[in-house]
Amino acid sequence: MPNKVYHYDITITPVRSKQFVRLAFQKCKQKYFHGIEAAFDGKKSCYTPKRLSSPINCTVKVSDSNSRTIEFQVEIKETLDCEVDLNSLRTYHNDSVSDKPMRALQALYVILSESNHEKGLRVGRAFFCRPIKPHDLGDGYEAWTGLFEAVILGDQPFLNVDITHKSFPCESSLIDYLKNQKIGLGQDLRKNKQVQSYLRGINIVYQPPESFKSFARKYKVLKIGNSASQLHFLNGDGLQMTVAEYFKSRGYSLKYPNLSCVEVGSTAHSIYLPMELCKIAGGQVLNRKDESTQVRNMIRSAATSTNVRKRKIMDMLQHFNLNASKIVQSFGIKIDLNFIKVPIRVLPSPIIEYLNGQTVNVNRGAWMMDKQQFLICTKPQAGKQVGHKWAIIYQSGIEYIHLDNFKKSVLKKAKDLNMHLENTAEIMEYTDIYNTLLNLAKSDYALVFVVLGRTAYYHIKQVADLKVGVLTQCIQDKTVKKIPQSPPIISNLLLGVNGKLNGTNHKILLDNDDDMKDLMAPIKNVMFMGADVTHPSPDQPHIPSVVGVTASHDPIGACYNMQYRLQQSTKEDIEDMESITNRHLEFYFQFMKTYPTHIIYYRDGVSDGQFPIIQRVELSAIQRACRKMGCDTKLTCIIAVKRHHTRFFPMKQQRGERDLNNVEPGTVVDQMITHPREVQFFMVSHQSIQSTAKPTRYNVILNESNFDIDLLQQLTYNLCHLFPRCNRSVSYPAPVYLAHVAAFRARVYLEGTKTFSEVLGEEYEKRLIQPRLMERNPMFFI
Questions:
Q1: Residue-level pLDDT at 235
Q2: Which of 104, 272, 338, 768 is the most buried (most CB within 10 A)?
Q3: Per the domain annotation, does 113 fall within a domain?
């Protein structure tokens, strides 16, 4: 690697798509760089191994996909600090945390990415190739495989590589698309939501009939129009004619004159094209959210063992062959393509404690309840009731025998687990969900099972949480029917129900192990907090982002309450953190009769570049809230990051991992690939059941309590065993996992709304959770 490279500002006008900008730069480089190689970031920067003799200002011409010539003006000049010191990548570990050599990192990344454009299609930080036999994802999409690349700083600079997957529209004629989707060619496609949704915004290639003696043209679909035999327009002579008549007048009779046309061009000047002459362009990137079918099939196609994943990574590296790249070589860079070997530690799995001191050992991230009972199960707060009143409501379409079996199964298993439910349940059919839930709430029903039928899940939760304030547990009708054949369904269901009813399923036993007890001794009077911000997909910019924040209010970090907020789309830092923390502190005091000595705050969904703003905005807000409450609470903040591409591959076959061969749950890596001056570690806390396990990366960005790193690692691992909805350790600690669940519930409150006020505070006020529910059942959201 050289000691320095040279950085140039680039301005290319007019502004067009990245494809043409890159072509314009290549034309300029070929003519004016005099043999000096250059790496271009596709935007406004390029890097060279040698200094250019002078600034460049030139005009170049490139051809677009419709064979039209476009002229570009290219201006290249040195940046104010032209020399980029790559030697800083050798010495950065001696510098402070805030002085990462970001310019050198960016330059190295651009250089290593440059040659990949010749062999792959770039999407974000990955380059995709169409497999020989792509996996069909359904609905007109297929899965492509990509190579992800990033330069990271550990004991030395490393190239982080991984495979990734993305859905692309299948390249096919529109007629074949309709046939593959089993859509009749005789129907009015304007009324078909599936076709409308798929084709809107997609690029198509229009191939004129031979009689037109014209070239193929590429267009973006605006919408579906009327059929060619019904769609009229004025021709060049001012005469009205149909699209079908127009094509016939030019020597081509349409095969499907009654099939809808696609509308392309612009809204001011629409062009209508017969579908039979159009095909879906291959290799196009769509900025839209994948549907559930695509996501499900993608997960299945991408799920691989560590051995297979490693082989696929090596195959992709061989395909792109960076060391053979002329550009990479010109910079004097060579990459060691061997995977690095890192030292690991495997933390001891905690012991799970249930009622009456009964314990269960954790085996590879999971444990079985045999005859154990939940640690805490609540009883009705008032009256002479022995158990909580509960009901089952349903809509027509499911036989009563299934509902009766469901009731009996719930009662039997609840008794086994020491849950306190009345011995009978009201089973009733409903047509009006609001009045049904309202009447049950007035009759003091503590729990309502809702068998999902025609009424949408989001509507049920909006009514139950925002309008009535009654605790609900939804279950699919098909799941109810399967219960006799699948008894674990009820056990798993009641894990969440017990939490909703203010129970505690289990806790971590510390007393039996002196070392563990001593290590965890400082963890007393702690409020655990978790936060997540979920954003709408890029094609839904009108929908606000949703903040979910949870906090514990018990001695062991098992019981949580939630707050949510709405804020500007894509804004990552939480704006209203002070008032959120105020409410959490009040809740903690209400249950614990004291304020916490420590707050340990787990934050999800934050990239490295956003750490400073989290410190400046969110952590300051939490500290202000504590001061206003008059409590001297010390704050520790741990960022939990899953959006990375680090994977661990065991060097030998793991015990009990014949198929996937993942590392053991509890595996920690805190050397070599972590920054030597940052408090950072990777942890695999869960057993992946279908693919290569993804570790979570943790960055401790504030530690006012001066907790030891060994304590924080073991605490984090222990908290992964306290997620209430399953008897297995999860990939995140419970506080932040529950924050994600809370944000998901809050997003449900937005469904069914097409337009939102710009004043998001007003939108939030419309969707306040009923105080009755928040106070009586703080964990209603799980």
A1: 84
A2: 104
A3: no
Cβ contact 239:280 at 8 Å: no
540 and 672 co-located in one domain:
yes
- Clarify whether residues 536 and 465 are in a common domain: no
439 and 550, same domain (yes or no): no
pLDDT at 103 over 70: yes
Q: Are residues 771 and 734 in the same domain?
A: yes
Summarize pLDDT for 485-531 with one digit per residue, the tens.
898 999 999 999 999 999 999 999 987 777 888 889 899 999 999 99
Is the separation of the CB atoms in 195 and 208 below 8 Å? no
Q: In whole angstroms, what is the distance from residue 128 CA to residue 167 CA?
A: 10
Q: Are 477 and 398 in contact (CB under 8 A)?
A: yes
The pTM assigned to this predicted structure is 0.92
Q: How many structural domains comprise the chain?
A: 4
DSSP for 472-485 reads: EEEEEHHHHHHGGG
Residue 265 and residue 650: Cα distance in Å, rounded?
54
Query: Is 131 a domain residue?
Result: no
SS (H, E, C) 376-423: ECCCCCCCCCCCECEEEEECCCCCHHHHHHHHHHHHHHHHHCCCCECC
Query: Would you say residue 337 lies in a domain?
Result: no
Choice between 90 and 59, residue whose per-residue pLDDT is larger: 59
CB atoms inside a 10 Å sphere around CB 686: 24
Q: Which pLDDT value is given to residue 97?
A: 47
Residue 389: phi and psi, rounded to 5, are: -70, 135
Task: Kindly state whether residues 725 and 689 are assigned to the same domain.
Answer: yes
- Over residues 635-684, the pLDDT tens digits come to 999 999 999 999 999 998 776 556 799 999 999 999 999 988 889 999 99
Is residue 746 a part of any domain in this protein?
yes
Q: CA-CA distance, 367 to 686, in Å (whole number)? A: 12
Mean pLDDT in residue range 727-741: 98
386's CB contacts (< 8 A; 6+ apart) are: 379, 380, 420, 422, 423
Residue 722 confidence (pLDDT) above 70: yes
